[in-house]
Structures are given as structure tokens and as C-alpha cells.
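About this split. The held-out portion is used to measure sequence recovery: a designer receives only the C-alpha cells and must propose an amino acid at every position. Recovery is the fraction of positions where the proposal matches the reference. Here is one held-out target exactly as it appears in the evaluation file.
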């Protein structure tokens, strides 16, 4: 009896730390949370009993072991990582990529002129020596055409630099964003894995709560049975034995009880009840022995520690613990799959966002190239336009004989020439002007 008392004290201490339905599934209304969801009620009925598969020959210690539940899973990654898994997935996003073609960028759409890289400085066809000869003005025109050609080449070179930056931008392709919701997209796969993880977490939470409910209540019943057994069982056994001895006229050496005399004496004072329809009639004493002994033995059986109800709890507890183990294994698998899908998704997003960042850098570089090109192009355009005005005067004959000089400049040149080369222009023997074309003054 001392061992039973110590065992009960230990069970009470253990019971103080046990919880009923401790697990929670935040934000999910479908998780069961009401007492009785584990179907523990089936073990509290009068005719409760364990399943046929349960070993009913187990002793008190075996049943107690079946009722013990120690999970210690709260700090495991598959449990702790769930609460922020959906938020974690939602915090990862794809950057917005600029247009594939630079000419479709907002800058170009708003101000098309800012994205014009044409020079529009063609070299005139008549600058080709084989196309047209400008006579005595050829050296002047040639220098003019060289200047036009140099301006054309300088602009073309800068234009090529700008065009190269634009081509580099156009060639950069970030690819298809992994955040799209197509079935085969990384985001969809990660989202599906998170929902499976969520479903597994719900199943595990329900399994934990079911197991704690059945096992804790069963453990409490074991403590209760142990207390009743400790207090009343021996006295009840003695009482039943005394009743059996009394009914069998075996009093163990004490004066025998004359049951016939007792019955005769009782019959003298027996009175017919006024209403006998639903009443029981005491015919003789022997009719009380058998039912009384049976009732006492049934009561005695209910005081046994390993009652059918307790074994039902132990059996159900084993089933719930096994269900919890299976659901936790499924939870770990779902967690691992989510981790793989989430890692792949975040990796794809990081790579995609890097490509988008490079595209944006290329966009800024291209815009800068255009901003550098346009002022230079304007400067060259002014020089080109000035040279072209002069060239066109030669080309259409407006400056023939003047080699591009004004009348005043021609007079000044002629005055100088007359002084330095007088005999070239004047026949001294006749004192007349020598025949000479004014065009020759442009010759070196």
C-alpha cells in the first residue's frame, strides 16, 4: 500500500504540469479548440472498454506508461517557423523592370527629341573631287569639304558611342519575373508549399490537442482510481467476504445465524403495501443474498485501478499519441518542402532584381550618353551649317572668281598684288593692263 501511495503522489505532481489542448494555430479558424473534440467522451460511459487490440493484461504501471505524454516540440523549427511563414513569403517581391527598348522608356515617350541620336550632317556629293572641279577655287573648296567631313566624322563617332550605350541597354533582358502567379512560377510553387505547410500545421495542432485532452484526463482518472483503491478497496473486499459468509451460514466459529428463524420473524411483521403495481415484495431472505453480493462485487470491481474506463483512456491515448507522431512527421516534411521552395523563390527573386538593377543602371548610363551627345551635336551642327552655307555658294557659282572672298577683300588683294607684282598686271612698255583673269589671284 505504501508503494501505491507513493505512485499516486507522483501522479498528482505530474498532473499539475499537464495541459489540456495547449497548442494554437494563429489566424486559422478551422483548428479544433473545444473540449471533447478528441472523442474522449466514449471512455466515460458505464460500459466503456478498450478496443480489441489493446492488451488488457497490462498492470497498473503499464497503463500509466500508456497515459504519459511528453511532446517537447514547441522549440522545433517546423513549429516555430510557421507563425511568420505567410508573412515571410509575402515580404519578398520583384522589382519593376524598365521597358525592354530604350526608345520605349518614359523619357523618350515624353520628349522624343531627347532620344534622337541622328547627326544629320551629310558630306555634299560635290565634295568628291571626281564629281566636280571648282577650278582656281579648288584649294579653298577642298579645305571647306575637309572641314565638313571632319565635323561629320566627329559627330558620327560620338553618335556611335551613344548608340552603343543604347544597344547595350536594349540587350539586357531581366527575364520573366518569378513573382508571377502562373502555375509553374517560383512564387506559385512557394505559395503552394506554404499552404500545404499550413494544412499540416493545423492537423498537427489538432492532433496535439486531442492527445493532451485524452491523456491528461485519463491520467487524472488513474490518479482518482488510485486514491479510491487506496482508501476503500480493502474494506470493500472484507465487506463482500463477510456478506458471502453470512449468506452461506459460515460465520467462522461465531454463533451461526439462523436465517430461517429470521425469515419467520420478518414474515410476522410483514405488511402488504397499499400500492403493489411497481413495488418489489420481500419473499424471504435468500432473495437478497445473491443480488446484494453481485452489486457489491460490481462496486468492488469499479474500485480497481485498471478499470475498463481507464484502459479505454489508455488505449485512446496510445492512438492519439501515434496520430500526433504521424502528423508531426508530415509537418516536418511540409516544412522542409516549404523551406526548399522558399529558398528557390527568394534566390530567383534576388537574381531577377539584380538583373533589373543592371537594366536601370544601363538606362541611366544611356540617358547620360544622350545628355552628353546633344550639346556636342549642337556645337558641331552650328559649324557644319556655317561651312555648308559657304560651300553652297561655291557649289551654285555665286562666288566664282572670288574664291569665297567679298568684293572688298578682292580689291584689297588686288591692290597688294599690284604693288608686289606690278609687271604681272601692267605692260610697262605700253603702260596698259596686261591680260589677266582675276581668278588667278587665288592661285598660290
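Reference sequence for scoring:
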Amino acid at each position: 500500500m505504501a508503494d501505491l501511495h507513493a505512485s499516486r503522489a507522483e501522479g498528482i505532481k505530474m498532473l499539475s504540469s499537464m495541459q489540456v489542448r495547449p497548442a494554437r494555430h494563429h489566424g486559422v479558424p478551422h483548428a479544433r479548440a473545444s473540449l471533447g473534440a478528441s472523442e474522449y467522451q466514449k471512455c466515460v460511459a458505464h460500459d466503456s472498454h478498450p478496443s480489441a487490440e489493446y492488451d488488457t493484461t497490462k498492470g497498473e504501471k503499464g497503463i500509466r506508461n500508456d497515459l504519459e505524454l511528453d511532446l517537447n516540440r514547441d522549440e522545433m523549427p517546423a513549429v516555430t517557423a510557421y507563425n511568420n511563414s505567410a508573412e515571410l513569403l509575402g515580404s519578398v517581391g520583384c522589382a519593376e523592370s524598365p521597358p525592354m527598348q530604350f526608345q520605349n522608356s518614359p523619357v523618350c515617350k515624353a520628349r522624343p527629341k531627347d532620344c534622337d541620336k541622328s547627326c544629320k550632317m551629310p558630306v555634299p556629293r560635290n565634295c568628291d573631287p571626281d564629281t566636280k572641279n571648282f577650278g582656281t577655287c579648288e584649294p579653298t573648296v577642298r579645305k571647306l569639304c575637309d572641314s565638313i567631313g571632319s565635323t561629320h566624322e566627329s559627330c558620327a563617332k560620338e553618335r556611335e558611342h551613344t548608340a552603343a550605350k543604347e544597344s547595350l541597354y536594349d540587350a539586357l533582358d531581366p527575364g520573366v519575373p518569378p513573382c508571377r502567379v502562373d502555375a509553374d512560377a517560383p512564387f506559385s510553387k512557394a505559395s503552394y508549399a506554404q499552404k500545404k505547410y499550413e494544412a499540416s500545421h493545423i492537423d498537427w495542432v489538432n492532433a496535439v490537442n486531442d492527445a493532451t485532452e485524452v491523456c491528461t484526463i485519463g491520467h487524472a482518472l488513474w490518479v482518482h482510481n488510485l486514491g479510491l483503491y487506496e482508501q476503500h478497496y480493502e474494506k470493500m473486499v472484507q465487506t463482500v467476504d463477510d456478506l458471502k459468509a453470512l449468506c452461506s451460514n459460515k460465520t467462522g466459529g461465531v454463533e451461526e445465524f439462523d436465517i430461517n428463524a429470521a425469515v419467520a420473524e420478518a414474515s410476522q411483521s410483514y405488511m402488504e403495501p397499499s400500492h403493489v403495481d411497481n413495488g418489489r415484495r420481500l419473499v424471504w431472505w435468500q432473495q437478497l443474498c445473491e443480488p446484494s453480493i453481485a452489486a457489491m462485487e460490481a462496486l468492488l470491481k469499479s474500485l480497481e485501478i485498471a478499470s475498463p474506463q481507464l484502459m479505454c483512456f489508455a488505449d485512446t491515448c496510445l492512438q492519439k499519441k501515434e496520430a500526433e507522431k504521424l502528423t508531426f512527421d508530415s509537418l516536418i516534411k511540409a516544412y522542409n518542402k516549404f523551406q526548399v521552395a522558399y529558398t528557390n523563390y527568394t534566390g530567383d527573386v534576388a537574381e531577377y532584381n539584380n538583373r533589373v538593377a543592371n537594366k536601370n543602371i544601363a538606362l541611366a548610363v544611356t540617358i547620360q550618353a544622350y545628355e552628353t551627345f546633344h550639346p556636342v551635336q549642337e556645337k558641331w551642327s552650328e559649324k557644319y551649317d556655317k561651312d555648308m552655307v559657304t560651300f553652297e555658294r561655291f557649289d551654285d557659282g555665286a562666288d566664282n572668281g572670288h574664291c569665297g572672298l567679298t568684293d572688298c577683300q578682292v580689291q584689297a588683294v588686288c591692290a597688294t598684288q599690284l604693288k608686289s607684282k606690278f609687271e604681272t598686271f601692267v605692260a610697262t612698255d605700253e603702260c596698259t593692263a596686261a591680260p589677266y583673269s582675276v581668278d588667278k589671284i587665288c592661285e598660290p
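Annotator remark: The first helix runs from residue 2 to 15.
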